Structures are given as C-alpha cells and as structure tokens.
Known about the structure:
Elements: E1 6-10, H1 16-20, H2 35-44, E2 51-57, E3 60-71, E4 76-84, H3 93-108, E5 113-118, H4 123-131, E6 135-140, E7 147-152, H5 153-156, H6 170-176, E8 189-194, E9 201-206
Parallel strand pairs: 4-5
Antiparallel strand pairs: 1-2, 2-3, 3-4, 5-7, 6-7, 8-9
Amino acid sequence: MDTEVLTIQPVDNTNRDAVIGLTVAAEQSRFIETNAESLREMEVDVKYAWQCYALCLDERPVGFMMIGAENKIDRYVWLDRFMMDAREQGKGLGARFLQLALIFIQDRFDVDDIVLSLHAANEPAKRFYQRGGFVDSGRIDEWNGEAIWVYHVNRCGRFNRIPGHEETDDGDEAEERDEPILRQQIHDGRFLRPNACSDQGVPTRIRRDTL
C-alpha cells in the first residue's frame, strides 16, 4: 500500500494555477478570501512579508495557507487563510496539514505564539483549531470582529502531535467533513498571552510591524 506524502511547498509558477483553482465548499466561502486574492495581497502588501504555501498531497496541491506579520518583539507570527479544497475535505487531511504547518512555522520562526482569527459563526473551525492545540484568547479582533485564537508554542509543547497520528473518534470524523476555514485580515488587534496553556493571561498588544 502506497504511503501518502504530505508536504508544504512555496507557491510558484509551477503550482500557482493549481492553487488558484482550489476552492472551499459554498457554505464556507463567506469565511475566507479566495487563494487568488491572498496571492495578490502577498504581492501588494509587502510590509508584512506574507508568504504563500501550497499544501500538497503527493506533490498535488490540495490546500493553501499564508504565514507572515511576524512580531519579533512580542514573539508571535500569524497563520492565515488556511484552507482545504472542497473535494479533499472529510478525509482527515486538514488536521494532518495543520500539525505539519505548526512544525513548519516553528522550524522557521523563533516565536512563542502562533495566532489566527475566526469568524464567530464558524463553529466547525473552532472545534478544529481547538483539537489542533489552539485556545480562544477571549479577545475580539477590533478590525473585523473575529475571535483571536492562539497556539502557545512553549506552553503547549513544541511539535505536540505527529502528523498522521491524530486520535479521532466517529464524532471527530463527522466534524472533519465540515472542514474549518480561517479568515484573518491585516490590522491591529489584541490577544491574551497566558501564563499556561489556557485562555487566561495578561493582555498584550498585537503589532503588525515587521521588525
């Protein structure tokens, strides 16, 4: 039996069209920009040094994400626009790629926190990221009204799961069919920096400056 190979690859001329062709389910589209819009944002909004990546299954793009807006003083970086193509949802790939993404980010950024924001109505996304090790900071993003969620690298443990070895039950599989979508825009906001892996902590300012 062949083993599936999951990789994260920069978006370039060899995979750009395939990435642009990836779409979420119709009911998820209100929670996220298209990949074409995200790629244009990376090219235009250079201040935040966004980088776009294809999530590849056996070299074939099946998902997408952006990473950027690193703050070297407060030691965090943003994970943005994480998505899986509608045709690939319900297979557990989203959870595996999220854990791979956390490893990928920790290998490349010396940060304490990985942050993202979620639409209040996107309940499947909340369950998905909670299972992946993120916690709700309890703060609302002032720019778009979304909840800010945080993955605490040092508090929750580096590489807290091995991709492909998640423990799931029938309920998790059912939730996975509603593949969660992350939507987050560039703006100022706030989140809590807990003293432990929980949703309690001390407020700290999220600054978008790339230092």
